[in-house]
Amino acid sequence: MKAYIISIAAAAVISAAVSIITPEKWAKYVGVVTGLVIVLCIAQPVLELLKTNVFEGIEVQTQELNTDGNGLLLNEVKEELAARVGEDAAARLKTEFMLDCEAEADIEVNENGEIAGVKSITVYSKRGLDTAAAARLKEVYGAAEVKYGGYNKKAEKTE
Asked: Which of 2, 71, 79, 106 gets the highest tally of CB atoms within 10 A of its CB?
């Protein structure tokens, strides 16, 4: 704190001395420059705070959560994406193949904790799933596997 006060006082004394010896036509410019020097001396503690990285440890923690694939945010995004792909696949099968069904997607995550794509899609319907519909889902979503899950989605989950 002592050094801080001394630096402000020294800047004020130097700026006063410079203001005295400058010609009048340069007085405005010198006054602005010396004023900026004094403001910077006063703002020095704030500038020191800006240099420190307040969020230093946070980045490492979020990377640790996401690299193992079990991060909370990654799981939420994965579940939301799986739900949307399932809904979209069911709507696509209904419009393109007149198949009233429900679909469930499984999203693949790579070793870096990033979403790699659709791993598989399971379709639940009364009518079954023909090969053309399965091929279309593979084409659109890039799914490695499209399978028929039976008549009822709830019955499959309880087994």
From this structure: 71
43 and 116 housed in the same domain: no
Instruction: Classify each residue of 94-120 as buried b or exposed e, where b means 16 or more C-beta atoms within 10 Å of its C-beta.
Output: eeebebebbbbbbbebeeebeeeebbb
Q: Tell me how far apart the alpha carbons of residues 79 and 87 are, in angstroms, rounded to a whole number.
A: 12
Do 83 and 152 sit in the same domain of this protein?
Answer: yes
Residue 78, in any domain of the structure: yes
Which pLDDT value is given to residue 71?
Answer: 60
- The Cα–Cα gap between 20 and 31 comes to 10
Average pLDDT across each block of 10 residues of the chain; the chain has 159 residues. List them in order.
86 91 91 90 78 52 47 75 89 90 88 81 89 89 87 55
Burial class of residue 143 (count of CB atoms within 10 Å of its CB; 0-12, 13-18, 19+): buried
> What domain range includes position 130?
69-158
Strand duo 115-125 + 145-150: pairing: parallel
